[in-house]
């Protein structure tokens, strides 16, 4: 997503050919095809990013212990549903303000989204860009993605309802405000900050919200013992791998759709480059983690490969268009390296991140955002850093406040007995795999 | 799907701009883009609805006990394959009759579908609408969906082959006949019945066929004991959740593709609205079930949330275009409420529906169909009720007859020993999870 | 994929209408829509074929025993990542040589792929066909598919790193060379060999590479005992079924995208026919296996149904466009029959193919390729046989050499203790399902 929703860079270029058939504008219909192509891009991109919600659900269900799987699934489907409602009720209006409440910083809170009337005839339609409903559908999925990132870090010990209340605030308010700073035409976009599809706006933001939660919540019982990290392996690596493949697939929509236009040769060609670069960065992240775990630990680590691929994807998200395939390999590969080193580093800080979401989304997201000036003229490391700090500080502090309020009123952590018994039995009274004996 | 395949509402509107470039029709080529866009819609919509077959398979495999999982998977992939063949051999010809055998009620039974010749040159093509093959592909998936609904209800006790024979009749004859009444231009469409993408034609119809089967088949051994319902929890809620996400994704194709046209600004804008509304209804159904199970039972119930989302989807299917996002939330949310109350109600009637398909597809399907007049001028509750009754009576009675015939000739239920041992060992001689000890 | 990437058959036909709007070429912009439509086809087709990587991963993870699942997942995601890098580094340049090193047989090895510059303005773009990046993205997925086929056959006993080194050679060199013979405009395409989407170029090729590996590697310990085949059932048939559905879905992109053009009425109509035929062949393969296992063994076999569907898909891949739906049913159905008989036949030859990839991809691939002259004028059984033999001999021999070299330097098979303990514990030190007791 470059610039704002309202002024996609490609529109200027496409305006000319669109009417080139006309010798007398009054006589001919406008060219409707760019409108249709771009709307298609939003719809296809949108359903691919929707699919990422399933990817997070499978990844996280696979990486928690079986006694917490049903709860994790409940959180994942519920957070997506809540995001869908909150983004409509408040979020979209905040994110794309017609008029700012605080110039460049905060939009209006009471602009419930409605869609344009049905069945526009060609003659009546304002052929200004693409269907508003398709844009809403696409943007909604990014908001939900931000919330999905949080659920993995806090798994296996957080209470269900406080988590869902946090999700409500995150998707309705926190994400839309920070996203408006860039994609709504706010102060970061004015400054020249560059984050194409959201390495920082979505992924690092979700990571900061998760980090705040992890600090308030504390680590799982028994995770850090006598200065050592106790491994708590995921219960189903097949699901975790499936989740990673789903996320990889969805990312083509995440990055490709963020071109925000597909109705010109230039735009669809850019979308194609983005697909190729996105795939390369994921592959490089996976291979980097594959080789590095072999070299460092003497054994390949599957979960590191999965997270390496995801870190490669997060890394290329800030700029999936301009890099060459070689630069995409470098950017994604460094993302994979980051994961291998950041996971044990977090453990040393006793920040318990169950699925590795902070290394993957926060740290690789920062890396990807800082890498933009390597390939893009007109961007600077300083501006990129300012953007990261602004978003990071805002999301971290507001999240911390919400977590602390939730902790004060009723608490956010399950009891010790519930945690040991497992959240599924203790909180839901149902198990994900009730028939299989557990070890 | 509005009106018939042959006269999509949007064609009239799109006819004008399509030739607007021409000042002299003899000099210029026709505008081929609407044909291509609409064909793309059928293909993308079709592969998304195909994907729903996998969704049903995973949902049902997750909700049965592990001793019946392999059989449930066998049924799901086999029924899709059988539907693909039967719809070609008989169904499509019945559903879209060039000439009726009984006017408005039944088409010809012996019109095997063939596709138009290969490689039409632009000059030769009849640019009347879209590729016939893409329409066939898309419609086929709806036929298969109807059959998928049945398999879940009857799980864990029905014999494999009688089920597959029923599927053959359902997909070859029963579904195509009732669907022709509306989408083939039959008497219901003449009456003004309105069912955009098939809340009744597909979902309630599948539900009625399942209900007839459940009555003939009887409940599982031990399900109802001393006036109480004995819970028989699903063996793999991760799979069930995955199945729900798959169905949610596929539904964008199910409802969006049913616009049946994408080549004008009005049509693609309508498709976009349908995507946004469909997502909202699913989200509302999930949230309704989330809150209601917490309030009613004091504990959140994951399977209710999954079925709530699906009920929201079924509810919006009769009219995903006209409602506002707020009305979509209301319609879908009521769908979620229905599920929470209908599941125990069915149990009181001792109708054993293993996966909750009757509440989700039949009852929410009726609700969605009856809700159409809330948003659509020109429709009436009476006409909607007549349509539901006509389709319900026809599908229920013909299904009942088929089930009774199958029961008379060889039986439809496995032996008591087989049911207790599990269908996988008894019928297939293979298990889904042979290495895991079962509790 | 017919003919070469550079001269798609449809381009000639589409050239005329594309400029038909123009009365004076100098005054009007070129028609950009065919470029956009075809690029979209590559992108959508490409992400569907990407998804097949997940399908292979789930199919194979479901068909191996639980002690080898994590290793199998590691192989699948790693091989895809390696293929993505190797095809960029060497493969694409070999496969589509601007200039041949050996005329019609081998392209240059040092043509690292780069993508065209960003943001082509309409005026500047060479509107010759479609985005090069989209073509690269699409073709890459075929290369990765070839490697995916190999991993299943060799499961449960091959060492991780030798397998990955073989993958490197296969995707960087072996596949691109043989694929260039047809799709790069090499000697097979000159001869009139016909293999639309790769029954032989992809599937049989992958099968030949797998066969060479299986021979060098030998069967699993205990598989063949006292002249009998000992069944080693897959650990998770739900995953295997999911994998099959994923592959079925992805195949619409595999075959449909291989039309290589979507910007004319003729092309998009052909893509539609391909979708319908592909689905029919899969359905027929599944039903054939369903009936045949019942008749032959008295019991339906789920894994045979899954492999039957896949064999149907492989069979129709050589020519998914020209057959009628009825002929697609015949071609795919014979594919399903082949699987049911070929699996035990291989076992008699003591070739241990864990997932049945050789019957599905190699034998059904040959069948599909030999079936082309049944429907296509201008092709001959002799030419088809020559193509199969040329590719088969090349892939088998080069693969055999690579496997033998790998065997000589360090070995390709894990130790007996490792194999019995399971590769997950022995090679990775982690398990896929660590909490479930195994039987």
UniProtKB/TrEMBL annotation, chains A, B, C:
Keyword Transmembrane listed: yes
Keyword Signal recorded: yes
Pfam families: Ammonium_transp
UniProt-recorded Gene Ontology molecular function terms: ammonium channel activity
Stretches that traverse the bilayer: 32-56, 77-96, 136-155, 160-177, 197-217, 237-254, 274-293, 300-318, 324-343, 355-375, 381-406
Topology of the protein relative to the lipid bilayer: Multi-pass membrane protein
Record keywords: Ammonia transport, Membrane, Signal, Transmembrane, Transmembrane helix, Transport
Location of the protein in the cell: Cell membrane; Membrane
Annotated ranges, domain Ammonium transporter AmtB-like: 42-433
Chief localisation class: membrane
GO biological process: ammonium homeostasis
Signal peptide: 1-22
GO cellular component, one term: plasma membrane
Family statement: Belongs to the ammonia transporter channel (TC 1.A.11.2) family.
PANTHER family recorded: AMMONIUM TRANSPORTER (PTHR11730), AMMONIUM TRANSPORTER SLL1017-RELATED (PTHR11730:SF62)
Protein's name according to its UniProt entry: Ammonium transporter
Origin organism lineage: Bacteria, Pseudomonadati, Pseudomonadota, Alphaproteobacteria, Rhodobacterales
């Amino acid at each position: 997503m470059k610039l704002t929703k309202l002024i996609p860079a490609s529109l200027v270029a496409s305006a000319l050919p669109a009417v080139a058939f006309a010798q007398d504008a009054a006589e001919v219909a406008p060219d409707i095809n760019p409108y249709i192509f771009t709307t298609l891009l939003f719809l296809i991109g949108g359903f691919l990013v929707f699919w990422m919600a399933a990817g997070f659900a499978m990844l996280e269900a696979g990486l928690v212990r079986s006694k917490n799987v049903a709860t994790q699934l409940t959180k994942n489907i519920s957070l997506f549903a809540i995001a869908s409602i909150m983004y409509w009720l408040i979020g979209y209006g905040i994110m794309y303000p017609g008029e700012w409440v605080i110039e460049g910083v905060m939009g209006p809170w009471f602009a419930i989204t409605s869609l344009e009337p049905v069945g526009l005839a060609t003659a009546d339609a304002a052929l200004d860009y693409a269907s508003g409903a398709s844009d809403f559908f696409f943007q909604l999925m990014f908001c939900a993605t931000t919330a999905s990132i949080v659920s993995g870090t806090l798994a296996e010990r957080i209470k269900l309802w406080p988590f869902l209340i946090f999700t409500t605030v995150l998707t309705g308010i926190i994400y839309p405000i920070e996203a408006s700073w860039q994609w709504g035409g706010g102060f970061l976009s004015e400054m020249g900050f560059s984050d194409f599809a959201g390495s920082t706006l979505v992924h690092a933001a979700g990571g900061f919200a998760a980090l705040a939660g992890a600090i308030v919540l504390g680590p799982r019982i028994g995770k850090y013992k006598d200065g050592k990290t106790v491994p708590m392996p995921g219960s189903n690596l097949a699901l975790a791998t499936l989740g990673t493949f789903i996320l990889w697939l969805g990312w083509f929509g995440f990055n490709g759709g963020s071109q925000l236009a597909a109705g010109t040769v230039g735009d669809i060609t850019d979308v194609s480059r983005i697909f190729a670069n996105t795939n390369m960065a994921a592959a490089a992240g996976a291979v980097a983690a594959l080789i590095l775990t072999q070299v460092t630990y003497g054994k390949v680590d599957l979960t590191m490969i999965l997270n390496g691929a995801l870190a490669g994807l997060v890394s290329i998200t800030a700029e999936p268009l301009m890099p060459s395939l070689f630069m995409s390999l470098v950017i994604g590969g460094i993302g994979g390296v980051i994961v291998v080193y950041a996971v044990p580093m977090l453990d040393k800080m006793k920040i318990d991140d169950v699925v590795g979401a902070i290394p993957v989304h926060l740290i690789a997201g920062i890396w990807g955002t800082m890498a933009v000036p390597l390939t893009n003229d007109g961007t600077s490391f300083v501006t990129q850093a300012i953007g990261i700090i602004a978003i990071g500080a805002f999301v971290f502090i507001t999240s911390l406040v919400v977590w602390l309020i939730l902790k004060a009123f009723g608490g956010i952590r399950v009891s010790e007995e519930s945690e040991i018994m497992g959240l599924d039995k203790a909180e839901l009274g149902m198990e994900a795999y009730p028939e299989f004996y557990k070890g």
